[in-house]
Design goal:
With 479 residues, this protein is of the alpha+beta class. It contains 20 helices and 8 strands. It has a 4-stranded mixed β-sheet. It has a two-stranded antiparallel ribbon with strand order 1-2.
Length: 479
C-alpha cells in the first residue's frame, strides 16, 4: 500500500536492524555477553562495505542479515560434542534465507562453507572419526531441510543458464574486480575526517566494491581474542576456526591474481617455468584462479571483492569475543566504561559523513506520457544500449508498460529473443515486432545516431509518427 519507494527504503533500513540483531545473537551465544553481541553487531551492521552498498543502491548486497544465522549454526554443528537439533534447524533456516535473498551470497556462502569445513578438519583434527561423522550427518540433515528453498532460489538461474542467458566472463575482464590486501586496512573515503585524504592518495576507482575496511578497533579486538583465546567461554579452537574462515574469505576476495594498491603484482618468471610460461614476467596466482577454471558458474561472477563481506563477518565475531575477554577482566564501573569506550571507537572508526538529499523530480517526458491515451508499451532505442533500470523506475510516473533490453546482470527471455531484431531499428522487421509486442511509443535518443535525420526519415517512412521532442529524446507513436 505504501508503494515501491517506501518498500525499497524500508528494506534497506530493516537490513541494518536485522544484520546487527542476528550478529548480536550469534556473538552473545558464543560468549554469553550482551556487550560482545553489541560490539560485533555494530561492526557488522555498520561496516563500510554495507554503507557503500547503501550509497550505490545495491539492495541485494545489503541482505547480509541471514549470514550470521547460517554460520552460527554451521560453526556449532562443527564443534565436537556440542551440536543439537536446534543447530541443524538454525543452519537450514540460515542457508534458506540467504538463498531467497541473494543468489550471489548463496554461491559465495557455498564456497566459504567448503573453506570452513577444511578449517574445522584442521582445528578439530584430534576429535576422532565418530565426531566427524556426527558433524557430517548433521550438516547433511540441514541441507536436506533447506533443499526446497534452495531449489526455489536456484531454479530460475539454472533455467537461464540453459537458455544461454548467464554470461561467462573472461579472466582478463574479472581481474579488474580483484581486491587488494590494502583494501581491508584503508579507511572508507566517506569518513568525514580522513576520507578525502584516502581518496586523494590511493586509487579507489572501485570504491563501491573495494570498500572492505575491517576497522582498526575491530582488528585490535580480534587480535585480543587470539591473544587471550581460551580464557573466556569461547574455546581456542573456535577462535582459530573463525580466524581461518576470515583468512579464507579475504584470500577469495583477492580474486585470481595478487593485486597491491589496486595494481597487479608481477614477478620474474622462474627459469624452469619458461617452457610453459614463455613471458619473462608472470602474475602471482591465487586459489581463486583454480576455482575460476574448475567450478561451474564461477566464471560468471564479476566482482570477487564481495567475498570481503564474509571477512568482515568473521572479524566481527572475533572482535565480539575479544570485547568479551577484555570486559571479563574488569569489574563494576570500569567494565562499563571500557565497554562504552570500545563501542564508541567502533562507531567513530566507521562514522560516515552526512550525505546530501536530492528530490527526484518527474521528467517532463513521463508527465506527458502519463497524459497520453491508451495502455500501449514504451520501448527505448538504441535497444540494447538503453539502461532499463531508470526507465523502469519512471513507469511509476508515466504508468505505461515497458519493454527493454539491458535490465542488469541478466537478460530476460523476451529481451534475448527480440534483441537482435530490435537492434536493427529502424527496419521493417523491428517495426513489425513493435506491433506484435503492443508497443505504442518508441523513445529514440538522437545523440546515439551519428546521422539522426536519416534515421528520422526512415522511421517516418515505416509509418511511425513523430509526436514530441524532449531534449535528448524524440517520441514516435506506433500506429
Amino acid at each position: 500500500m505504501a508503494g515501491p519507494v517506501f518498500g525499497y527504503n524500508f528494506a534497506i533500513l530493516a537490513s541494518y536492524v536485522l544484520t546487527g540483531l542476528t550478529m548480536y545473537i550469534w556473538t552473545r551465544r558464543l560468549t554469553g555477553q550482551p556487550l560482545a553481541g553489541l560490539i560485533a553487531g555494530t561492526i557488522f551492521a555498520f561496516s563500510p562495505f554495507r554503507y557503500a552498498s547503501y550509497l550505490v543502491g545495491h539492495l541485494n548486497l545489503l541482505g547480509t542479515q541471514w549470514l550470521p544465522i547460517y554460520f552460527m549454526g554451521l560453526v556449532q554443528i562443527l564443534q565436537p560434542g556440542r551440536r543439537s537439533r536446534f543447530d541443524v534447524l538454525v543452519t537450514a533456516a540460515g542457508i534458506s534465507l540467504v538463498a531467497l535473498s541473494s543468489i550471489h551470497y548463496l554461491y559465495m556462502t557455498a564456497v566459504l562453507t567448503l573453506a570452513v569445513l577444511i578449517g574445522a578438519l584442521l582445528v578439530h583434527r584430534r576429535s576422532g572419526a565418530a565426531q566427524v561423522k556426527q558433524s557430517a550427518v548433521s550438516l547433511m540433515a540441514a541441507f536436506l531441510i533447506a533443499l526446497p528453498a534452495l531449489g526455489l532460489a536456484v531454479a530460475p538461474y539454472l533455467d537461464l543458464a540453459q537458455r544461454g542467458g548467464i554470461t561467462v566472463r573472461s579472466i582478463e575482464y574479472v581481474r579488474q574486480f580483484s581486491a587488494s590486501p590494502t583494501d581491508f586496512v584503508l579507511p572508507a573515503t566517506f569518513h568525514p575526517l580522513w576520507g578525502r585524504w584516502v581518496g586523494d592518495h590511493f586509487d579507489r576507482s572501485y570504491w563501491p566494491e573495494a570498500t572492505l575496511y575491517l576497522g582498526a578497533a575491530a582488528i585490535v579486538l580480534a587480535v585480543a581474542a587470539f591473544w587471550w583465546s581460551g580464557q573466556g567461554t569461547v574455546t581456542r579452537r573456535t577462535v582459530s576456526l573463525l580466524g581461518l574462515s576470515a583468512l579464507a574469505a579475504l584470500i577469495l576476495a583477492l580474486g585470481v591474481n595478487l593485486y597491491w594498491l589496486s595494481q597487479p603484482v608481477w614477478i620474474n618468471t622462474p627459469k624452469f617455468l619458461l617452457q610453459w610460461h614463455p613471458s619473462p614476467q608472470a602474475r602471482i596466482p591465487l586459489p581463486g584462479y583454480l576455482l575460476f577454471k574448475t567450478l561451474p558458474f564461477y566464471s560468471s561472477m564479476r566482482v570477487w571483492m564481495r567475498y570481503g563481506v564474509f571477512a568482515v563477518l568473521f572479524v566481527s565475531a572475533l572482535a565480539g569475543i575479544g570485547a568479551a575477554v577484555v570486559a571479563g577482566k574488569l569489574r563494576g564501573w570500569s567494565r562499563r566504561a571500557v565497554g562504552a569506550l570500545m563501542l564508541g571507537l567502533v562507531l567513530f572508526d566507521f562514522w560516515p559523513k552526512q550525505q546530501p538529499f536530492a528530490r527526484v523530480e518527474n521528467e517532463a517526458l513521463d508527465t506527458w506520457l502519463a497524459g497520453q491515451p491508451g495502455k500501449g508499451a514504451v520501448a527505448p532505442f538504441p535497444f540494447e544500449r538503453a539502461d532499463s533500470q531508470p526507465l523502469i523506475y519512471r513507469t511509476l510516473v508515466n504508468g505505461k508498460p515497458f519493454v527493454g533490453g539491458l535490465y542488469g546482470a541478466y537478460s530476460t527471455a523476451q529481451s534475448m529473443r527480440i534483441g537482435a531484431i530490435m537492434d536493427g531499428f529502424p527496419s521493417e522487421e523491428s517495426v513489425s515486432l513493435l506491433h506484435e509486442l503492443g508497443i505504442q511509443y518508441a523513445l529514440v535518443w538522437p545523440s546515439a545516431y551519428p546521422e539522426f535525420q536519416v534515421i528520422n526519415d526512415e522511421v517516418e517512412k515505416l509509418g511511425l509518427k513523430r509526436l514530441a521532442d524532449f531534449g535528448d529524446t524524440v517520441v514516435y507513436e506506433v500506429p
